[in-house]
Design goal:
The complex is a heterodimer of chains A (215) and B (114). Chain A has a seven-stranded parallel sheet, sandwiched between helices. Chain A has 215 residues and is of the alpha/beta class. In chain A, helix 3 links the parallel strand 3 and strand 4. Chain A has a single domain, classed as Rossmann fold (3-Layer(aba) Sandwich). Chain A has eight helices and eight strands; from the N terminus they run E-H-E-H-E-H-E-H-E-E-H-H-E-H-E-H. Chain B has a domain of 77 residues: hypothetical protein PF0899 fold, CATH 3.30.2320.50. Helix content of chain B is 25%, strand content 33%. Chain B has a three-stranded mixed sheet. In chain B, strands 4-3-5 form a three-stranded antiparallel sheet, with no helix packed on it. In chain B, helix 1 packs across helix 2. Chain B is elongated, with a radius of gyration of 17 Å. Chain B starts with a helix and ends with a strand. Classes of the chains: A alpha/beta (215), B alpha+beta (114). Strand 1 of chain A pairs antiparallel with strand 6 of chain B.
Chain lengths: 215, 114
């Protein structure tokens, strides 16, 4: 006997992502899914961004890591509500992991929720968590060949932040090549060049972000 | 990398639908998988064989319809189908403005139960 099923295999994740989205909309929270390879500077970017937005936008953070609470401690020292998720081995955050911790965040008093995904250029791009926008961080020391090697994340992201540009003189990376390849994968991608170390470019990024959150 | 959790989802959805239809054994499950879905078919089959043990799908085989990446170019207006997993530009006119139509599928189509 043949039974028709026709179900998306990741439907369970999509369903929970939609539920998260409903909760975010209800509390009027803008949600960013922040993705990058390990060590690109996600937590440093959050520290800089949160300081820059201070007094203007009330942030909260969900930290996703395989193990440890180092990132959550860094964010917590800024006086920002933060929840650490330890995936215990899983390479990405999914909608259900987010759903389980939402009750512990003061969503109603939050304007902007950053979800710092597990450091990985592959799987995080494949799982929606109910975010408004995916933002990807690439540090130039990773090399300018990354867009064509890991295309999905560049395609799924609304913004690409190139970090560590203060190190440009010490690398062979070409910002032009990154820009060209990333734009060919995703013509509507908004690209920022920043250095979390020197603070260069951070204001341009936070201005753009503020506009997104307030609109 | 998450083929095992996807295999578990397939099993869960299949067992659920089999029971709902009033049957107790699954003979085969047909999946539609796009080439750009990020799934390694061999890894998925390997994982499914591991997770199906001691379930009503223990004897089940998995049949996979692989879907190539296809799209419509908004510059030259042509439909295209490609063997590539990722499309960087229209294979006809090299324009970068195109819409992908197929290739990201990850679905269960139907199954044989008895």
């Amino acid at each position: 006997m043949k039974v028709k099923v026709v179900t998306r295999i990741l439907e369970a994740n999509e369903r929970i992502a939609a539920e998260n989205r409903r909760l975010f909309d209800e509390a009027r929270v803008y949600v960013i899914n922040l993705m990058s390879a390990p060590g690109a500077g996600k937590t440093s970017l959050l520290e800089k961004t949160i300081k820059e937005l201070s007094g203007k936008i009330k942030p909260a953070v969900i930290e996703g890591d395989i193990a440890g609470t180092a990132d959550a401690e860094r964010i917590s020292s800024l006086g920002v509500p933060v929840i650490q998720i330890n995936t215990g081995g899983a390479c990405h955050l999914d909608a259900n992991m987010i759903n389980e911790v939402l009750g512990s965040l003061p969503l109603k008093e939050t304007d902007l929720l950053f979800v710092e995904n597990v450091g990985n250029l592959v799987c995080p791009a494949e799982f929606n968590i109910g975010e408004d926008m995916k933002v990807m961080l690439l540090s130039i020391t990773e090399g300018d060949d990354k867009p064509l090697k890991y295309p999905l994340m560049f395609q799924e992201s609304s913004a690409l932040i190139l970090n560590k540009i203060d190190l440009l003189p010490y690398t062979n990376a070409s910002i032009e090549k990154i820009r060209k390849d990333a734009m060919s994968l995703n013509p509507s991608l908004k690209i920022f060049e920043v250095s979390c170390k020197t603070g260069k470019g951070i204001a341009e990024w936070t201005d753009w972000l503020t506009e997104k959150v307030k609109s | 990398m998450h083929e095992a959790s996807i295999a578990l989802s397939v099993l869960e959805i299949a067992v659920d639908n089999c029971r709902k239809a009033g049957y107790n054994r699954i003979e085969s499950i047909r999946l539609k998988i796009g080439r750009a879905s990020g799934i390694m078919i061999d890894a998925l089959l390997f994982a499914f064989n591991a997770v199906k043990t001691d379930t009503i799908a223990a004897e089940a085989s998995v049949i996979i319809d692989e879907i190539p990446v296809s799209g419509l170019c908004s510059s030259c207006g042509k439909d295209f189908v490609t063997e590539e997993k990722y499309v960087l530009c229209c294979p006809e006119c090299s324009s970068t403005s195109f819409n992908i139509k197929t290739g990201r599928e990850l679905e269960i189509i139907d199954m044989e139960v008895f």
